[in-house]
Amino acid sequence: MAHTPTSHFQNDQGHPSIKIGVKRFMCVGASFPLDHPHVFINMGEENEKYCPYCSTLYKFDSSLNSEETFPVGCFLSTH
Q1: Where are the beta strands (DSSP E) in 10-72?
Q2: CA distance linking residue 40 with residue 12, whole number of Å
Q3: CB–CB of 9/20 below 8 Å?
Q4: Is residue 2 part of a domain?
Q5: Which residue, of 16, 23, 45, 78, is most buried by count of CB atoms within 10 Å of its CB?
Q6: Phi-psi region of 58 (alpha: psi -120 to 50; beta: other; left: phi over 0)
Q7: For the chain, what is the domain count?
Q8: Range of the domain at 58
Q9: What is the pTM of this model?
């Protein structure tokens, strides 16, 4: 079984919601050192889910790839 890396997202700008192209991801809140505990979120059958720490509403958008966000700039590279 191939390992698919988990996309990580941050919300440095304090957006109330962020559109993303994946349904399984990690929210880190703001960038280090202001990050919250990194929490894995799985939307399952739903198309949106709140982060339990920072209350960012993540909305699935199938037109985006795993590293794209709207507003732009919320993907966090872990490489």
Answers
A1: 17-20, 24-29, 35-42, 48-50, 57-60, 69-70
A2: 18
A3: yes
A4: no
A5: 23
A6: beta
A7: 1
A8: 7-76
A9: 0.92
